[in-house]
Amino acid sequence: MTGTGWTRDAIAAAHPTFFHHARTLRHRYGPGPWPDSGDPLPDAGPTDTGTSTSTGTRTSTRTGLGFVGGGEDALLRPDPAPHGTAPPTAAELAGHLAHLLPTAPPGLGGEAFTRLHELLATCSPIDLADDLSAEIRRRGLPSDGLRLLGRQLARHGTHRAPVKIGLVLLGLGGDTRDRDLLLLLGSLDELTLYAAVALHRSQPDGDRAVHALARRVAGWGRIQAVRTLRDTPDPRIKAWLLREGFRNTITDEYLAHLAATTGDLHRALGRPHVDTPLLNGGGRILAAMAEGQGGPAPGLADYAHAVPVLRRYADLVQARTPTLARLRDLIAITLFFRHPPGELPWPPADITSLTARYEDLLHASHWRTLVHDHLADPHRPDFHLALRPAEVLHLDATAPLLARLETGPSLLDPAWFRALGSADRRHAAHLLDLAERRLATTPRPERDHALLVLAHLLRRHPEHGWPLLRSALTDSTPEVRRTALSTLAAWPAHTLTPEAADLLLQRPEMGLGAVSGPGRTGRPGDPP
Fold this sequence. Notes:
Blueprint: H1 9-14, H2 18-29, E1 51-52, E2 58-59, E3 66-67, H3 71-75, H4 90-100, H5 110-120, H6 125-139, H7 143-156, H8 160-173, H9 179-186, H10 189-202, H11 206-214, H12 220-228, H13 235-245, H14 253-262, H15 265-270, H16 276-291, H17 306-319, H18 324-338, H19 348-362, H20 365-375, H21 387-392, H22 398-406, H23 414-422, H24 425-440, H25 446-457, H26 466-473, H27 478-490, H28 498-506
Antiparallel strand pairs: 1-2, 2-3
Helix pairs in contact: 4-6, 6-8, 7-8, 8-10, 9-10, 10-11, 10-12, 11-12, 13-14, 13-16, 14-16, 16-17, 16-18, 17-19, 18-19, 25-26, 25-27, 26-27
């Protein structure tokens, strides 16, 4: 068979393919991870299954939530396509493929491929993949035909759903010749799950192939690829899981427990020599499990070796050079014992001894010196990392925090969130004046993102927040305006100035009634 008859130049001419998009990113940035998880994707914008923003973050039409690459498949079932007819079931689609494969190229022309592409665009691959695979196996469809069709969908698809189905087919009929294609497309976080499963099924060294893919992605793709490696016996992969593999840009909580169990953290930390990357990774894994208890994945209380590993980690940290990263992990573990998420499944004596051990570690004087020295330089880009430790250690960070903001950092700098989220009246006016001046020189889209965050934070500052809230109320982004209006509605009635009332009257779509409530009658700004 040749693939010529399957190539759909007409489709590719109208819309860029995912294959071309991935090759462009690889040429520009290397093998990955790529900026923004590879977003925006070729089908970003209004599509058959929801919409995507200008940054490629897809918005579900059912929930209104935004998702970065791979997020919707990980968290929700994607929206059904708004077509007049229901998308095909797995059995119907398998039957359709069984009908097409005997007429494979050169018998199948471009029109048939276009119809198949349009049909697949109505599907939800995450709902279909397992059942479709089972149906294809039951029908005994030829692997060479599945491979050829899978490659052409993967290479020439311009919509994510046909490309994903193509990757499913490559998992059923592919072989070593498809490794590079699967690695390339899987480097887009939106496609990683499908490429990882296909690699694991089609390659003789499935774990190693998925490991290579996992290193190319950092967001949801990393999470999905690493989940495919659960229970791998490969010692190199297990070592990588404990040092780097669990880290991702979503939250380390998703993979911490998997890394601890599959990577055998208990045995690794129990060795006489523990290298620095392993100690740092092990601490972060324990901290992420502590922070994530009761969250999206098993936590520290669910880890069978928690007690001996926590003891060993405490001994190792005490003997090593203090770093801010280790302090942050130590804080997370200590707070877990201070505020346990329920009854811990360990002997009371172990809980008591571990609580005392970590409290003693945290109160060592060198941690306070470390935080003080870190905050002494307001220009360092990682300045904000010491703010939470300063709070836990009861260090007054007001002066260094104000010094940091005087340097004019981006309004998305975490120092702003910390300052405006906790500022009292003594500093609020000055901080908000700084923020207003910084906003005046902030370009889009950063300005819109900053206003959205500020609109939330301004709930705490009705006495001084009106100039910034006015900017948010007149922003071109609907989400920013809605958030600002919600903040305005939460302010006490006596803080609503005549200017605020005039603006609301000029913009009725903002919902003047939204600022009504108990004790709020008449014109906003009138005395209560």
